[in-house]
UniProtKB/TrEMBL annotation:
Pathway: Cofactor biosynthesis; 7,8-dihydroneopterin triphosphate biosynthesis; 7,8-dihydroneopterin triphosphate from GTP: step 1/1
SUPFAM superfamilies for the chain: Tetrahydrobiopterin biosynthesis enzymes-like (SSF55620)
Alphabetized CDD domains for the sequence: GTP_cyclohydro1
Any GO MF annotation of the entry: GTP cyclohydrolase I activity
GO CC annotation, single: cytoplasm
Protein name, per record: GTP cyclohydrolase 1
The protein's Enzyme Commission number: 3.5.4.16
Top-level taxonomic group: Bacteria
GO BP annotations, alphabetical order: one-carbon metabolic process; tetrahydrobiopterin biosynthetic process; tetrahydrofolate biosynthetic process
Domain GTP cyclohydrolase I: 7-183
Amino acid sequence: MDRKAVENAVLTILNEIGEDPSREGLKRTPHRVAKAYEYLTQGYNKKIEDILNGAIFEEKYDEMVIVKDIDFYSMCEHHMLPFYGKVHIAYIPNGKIVGLSKLPRIVDAYARRLQVQERMTQQIADTIEEYLSPAGVAVVIEAYHMCMMMRGVEKQNSITTTSAMHGVFSEDTRTRSEFLNLIAQKRI
Ligand SMILES: Nc1nc2c(ncn2[C@@H]2O[C@H](COP(=O)(O)OP(=O)(O)OP(=O)(O)O)[C@@H](O)[C@H]2O)c(=O)[nH]1
Ligand SMILES: [Zn+2]
């Protein structure tokens, strides 16, 4: 990212909304916003190979592994406003397991960029499928979209849920139900 170019763009916005970019509180705002955007879109520079490198292990465990309630913040590609919530991931190993922390890292790699919730859901599932070749993988995302809350339809309480079900999660209703029941349960 060309930070200077983003700073100039922010300066233009400040001017065009009728602000005075030279006033005390706004002097460093273009710089701050550019830095924030660098952070919020860092997913573009993340390589899945680097995240997973060395963290896939051979193991005989073949029951469901679930990591639920993974917080995420992303930005919708239509309005560049935040959408945020929780990701729930399950997979059934087929000879290979992954370091648990790598699942939230995969989530962040896809969340920290301009997104739509549906694509992000699929990208997470496809990545796990590609690297682990599991018997099945399931991803559910529940999110609030600021573009539907602070503008537009202005609905404060609607939650958008998306899912991607592969392998046994798509073929076997019992496996899918077990996953959905487990993510609905309150924590320990
Ligand atoms: N499917 C999907 N839609 C999204 C997501 N994030 C935002 N949107 C929607 O993208 C749509 C863009 O629609 P447009 O009609 O082009 O934009 P708009 O005039 O600002 O629409 P309103 O939000 O209805 O005011 C809106 O309906 C948003 O709610 C997402 O992750 N997935
Ligand atoms: Zn939006």
